Amino acid sequence: MTALRKYRRSRTGISLIEIMLAFLILVTAAFSAAGVISFGHRGTVADFRQVEAMQILVDRMNKLMNMPFASLDSFLVSAGGNEYTFKDDIEGIVLGDEVKMDKHSYRVHATLKRQAVVFDSLMELAFPNPDYVSASPSTWIFRDRPSAAFNGVANPYKILKITVSVKPVGGMTDEREFTAVSYVADLES
């Protein structure tokens, strides 16, 4: 046996090159895992912002729906039109282009619009009808009623359409805008 072979067989342990190679593999795996964790974290933050946006949307819509019809209508009267979009706070309801919630910002707008009501093909029960029994549809007699349209301003049907939209701002560019629509009728006058 040659001296070199004896030297290699008697040698135990790991060489510096093997350690460097193992370290390189470990670093590559660690960076890959960190990238996946970072990507997941960004997704979690975006999901959280969207959930928070929906909570803001429900809160603002509920607050507007709880306002008296006369108050909502007065905003349109003072604006001088049939539609108005609020971009600033109204009666304690926080709205605007950059509404701060904890560390996130949202664009929160509300729109009021007079809603026209149209009854195209309305049928009404014909009275007097001596054979009428409310529990028996076969005794009901209907007659045509002329179409009716109401502009949403005058009674008997004063209706406002409320639209609230919320969008996260300052975060990821492809975050969704959430919008809710509801209607308020004047049942007071």
Can you describe what's shown?
Helix content is 37%, strand content 29%. It is α+β, with helices and mostly antiparallel strands and 189 residues long. The protein has one domain. A hairpin with a 2-residue loop joins strand 2 and strand 3. The radius of gyration is 34 Å and the shape is elongated. The mean pLDDT is 82. The longest helix is centred in the N-terminal third of the chain and has 50 residues. Strands 1, 2, 3, 8 and 9 form a five-stranded antiparallel sheet that branches. The chain has a two-stranded antiparallel sheet with strand order 4-7.
Helix content: 25-40%
Strand coverage percent: 25-35%
Please tally the helical runs, counting DSSP H or I stretches of 4 or more residues: 3
Number of strands: 9
Radius of gyration, taken over Cα atoms and rounded to an integer in Å: 34 Å
Backbone structural class: alpha+beta
Which ranges are low-confidence, i.e. pLDDT below 50, for 5 or more consecutive residues?
A: none
- How does the major sheet shape up? 5 strands, antiparallel
Oligomeric form of this entry? single chain
SSE topology:
Elements: H1 3-10, H2 16-65, H3 69-79, E1 83-86, E2 96-101, E3 104-114, E4 117-119, E5 122-125, E6 142-145, E7 148-150, E8 159-169, E9 178-185
Antiparallel strand pairs: 1-3, 2-3, 3-8, 4-7, 5-6, 8-9
In short:
The chain has 189 residues and is α+β, with helices and mostly antiparallel strands. The chain is built from 3 helices and 9 strands; from the N terminus they run αααβββββββββ.
